[in-house]
């Protein structure tokens, strides 16, 4: 098991060592589809998340969040303008999910980070196996939209996170609202923003030649410069789930829903799968460094492989000296994982 202190010390060494001396992975973990975990594994994974929700905050910003779980929400919110609709979107979230997995290991989870292969649920997202009301093995269901009781009707009252009380960035209960997007207008044909992750769009992603175009297509075109575009798969799932998962802009607090990490693990899998399609893809990295949500402005500075990953929470996330280039190859240290299914473009 990875000890967090070791993890941090090891990560700090990345910047200090020349690349040929980079440590080797002891073994390559295989991230599995949530559907292929058995009941005991699911219970252990969800129990580790509950443990994180009960662990005291390490107060990375000098403010006591309600829990270690909420520290991660803050960590995601802090660099907002520099991690969404920019080249760094995929590498930043790759390390974020890895750091979250390390915390779950501290809480007793012994497996790899699982993923939610939502592209396999494209025909009817509401029928996905991810919606499970069982308090031991389920993430809960998707909310029950009621026009007569808009806010409270969306609180999740079943599954492992039933009535989960959130404090950061403002007090409320965990919400989802999938029924809200059954016919959401600007997402194109199909319910639940299906157009973003249907087989045709997934196939399209696999044929994109450059990181610059691939990253935008997977994340979503930025909504300020492309108000009429369809969301990419990443954006489509955030929107479709509504509730906490769709918070963006200044709050940027979607990691309040534990499904955020199941979602981003799949986004990462799609990137890793694209990287594996062509050797030219593995270290391909290009695009913008920043995007100001309020104005849509960019500095125009070109992103580079040796840009720092930019984690506000130094040391605690083992990322102080990590660069984008350190997280391009999932099968190399400090990542050391792969995915059991590297063909998200194939409907199973
Ligand atoms: C929502 O529920 C809370 C109790 O959890 C209650 O205090 C509040 O008045 C309710 N709001 C609405 C709009 O029904
Ligand atoms: C897939 O790509 C084709 C060709 O660029 C385009 O016409 C089509 O709209 C795309 N489909 C989706 C679902 O994005
Ligand atoms: C952000 O949070 C504030 C409360 O702190 C809330 O009033 C506001 O509506 C939220 N904005 C978004 C976009 O959710
Ligand atoms: Cu994000």
TrEMBL record:
Tell me the superkingdom of the source: Eukaryota
Where in this chain does the record put each Tyrosinase copper-binding domain?
257-268
Please give the PANTHER family that the UniProt record associates with this protein: TYROSINASE FAMILY MEMBER, TYROSINASE-LIKE PROTEIN TYR-1-RELATED
Q: Where is the signal peptide?
A: 1-18
Stated name of the protein: Tyrosinase copper-binding domain-containing protein
Key word Nucleotidyltransferase present: no
The GO molecular function terms of this record are:
metal ion binding; oxidoreductase activity
InterPro entries referenced in this protein's UniProt entry, alphabetically: Di-copper_centre_dom_sf, Tyrosinase/Hemocyanin, Tyrosinase_Cu-bd
The keyword Metal-binding belongs to this UniProt entry's keyword annotation = yes
Recite the UniProt keywords alphabetically: Copper, Metal-binding, Signal
